[in-house]
Amino acid sequence: MRVVVIGTGHVGLLTAASLATIGHDVVGVDSDEEKINALRQGTCPFFEPGLQDLIERTGKTGRLTFEVEPAEALKGADVVFICVGTPARASGEASLLALELAARSIAPALTGPVVVVEKSTVPAGTADRLWHVLRSERPDLMDEIEVVSNPEFLREGQGVEDALHPGRILVGARSPLGFETMRRLFEPLIRDGSRLIETDMPTAELAKHACNAFLALKISYANALARLCERAGADVKAVVDVMGSDPRIGRAFLDAGLGYGGFCFPKDLQAFERLAAQLGYDFPLLRQVARINDEAVQAAFDKIKDALWNLEDKRIALLGLSFKPDTDDVRFSPALALARRLLEEGATVVGYDPRAGANAKSELPGLEVASSVDDAMEGSHCMVVCTDWDEFRSLDLRRARELLARPIIVDGRNLFEPTEMRAEGFIYYGTGRGSYSSAP
Ligand code: UGA
């Protein structure tokens, strides 16, 4: 099928490259000429494991090409994905302006029959709005333009796997043209075992919000339990293992730590709460989830203060700056939220990340960025694990003891075992792993 993808961010590029991989002819479109030129050379503008390879391979076979100007590609396209950003407005509500502008800009070049796909996490009713925009722009194609909602469930860092082997594909549509086109488009994935779930459009849109909010809720539940465990002298890891052994609950997304970040959960949760309010339903649970998430960073900060007392003359090493491992994305990263708090208190903060150092530095210029774990640790009074990159699991503990000015570790991702760390001579603060007391 002939596919056009408008927007080459995380979602757009993964969508374009995966659809080209399963045999469609895909054109990725972006108004950023520099980005398009780089993509034409096979260069991915951000780090996502496996994506660069996919872009190169599909580029070589000619299945994936890139354009700044979409008019030519839109002529005769079967499917057009809109993968533009929906950033938060000051109120927390999602701004849907880019979606409307994208729909208006593609409308003149469309030829029917064509299905326009809305991919973002958006309020229920958005696909319907787009449908009206397209129809008003192209009354001549009234019955030949359909809009469907196909929310993505891509995780950064595992995006290629999620795009090529999605556990589920959610399609919200209203007409046979919408459903049939999407079945045809995803047929290779469905044949390969992905489950297709078909609903109406508002249901698909609401379901995406419901999924992200529920995952965030699980994380905050674990973090609230961590606060309780610290007070009760219990171990949150064991508590969530017990919970997870019940299949009705499940173990996933119950890792307590510095909390969730990224460009999805924090903003989607706020937008969902705003949407609920606009629909006349107060959903305070969502506000509590966000509050507990903010508390997680504060809890790590309190431990650092507990260990170091005054921060003005202290150097603090942060291991991990991205919002999660296997990405260079630092948007709403809990590591940077913690760094900001520490800098405000006058500490010197030095961070190391396998991939996200440069992005972190441009987001937070006051942060020193080290080029290795050793450089970050050397002379630091405390080391804080902020992101659970695999590299940190195999930390050389003896070397860490030698390099640190004081052997203090605040483990914001529970990478290490408290008893082992104490046996190694560290003053160790886990997250929710028994009570902690003031360092000597
Ligand atoms: C999330 C969803 O998982 C995807 O399904 C969804 O498509 C995507 O948002 C989106 O809406 O675009 P992502 O933001 O890439 O994906 O990251 P997750 O893997 O969900 O992790 C989110 C955050 O939660 C990270 O900061 C991670 O460190 C944190 N987390 C995760 C925890 O603190 N504890 C856990 O147990 C799990």
Structure description:
- This protein has helices spanning 10-21, 33-40, 51-60, 71-74, 97-106, 126-137, 159-164, 176-185, 187-191, 201-232, 236-244, 265-278, 284-308, 334-344, 357-363, 373-377, 390-393, 397-403, 418-423, and strands spanning 2-6, 25-29, 64-67, 79-82, 114-118, 145-149, 168-172, 195-199, 315-319, 348-352, 368-369, 382-385, 408-411, 427-429.
- It has 440 residues and is of the alpha/beta class.
- The strands form 3 sheets. Strands 3-2-1-4-5-6 form a 6-stranded parallel beta sheet, with helices on both faces.
- Helix 1 packs across helix 3 (51-60), helix 10 crosses helix 12 and helix 10 (201-232) runs parallel beside helix 13 (284-308).
- The chain is elongated.
- The termini are far apart.
- Uridine-5'-diphosphate-glucuronic acid binds at residues 121, 152-156, 212, 215, 219, 253-255, 257, 259-262, 264-265, 268, 323-324.
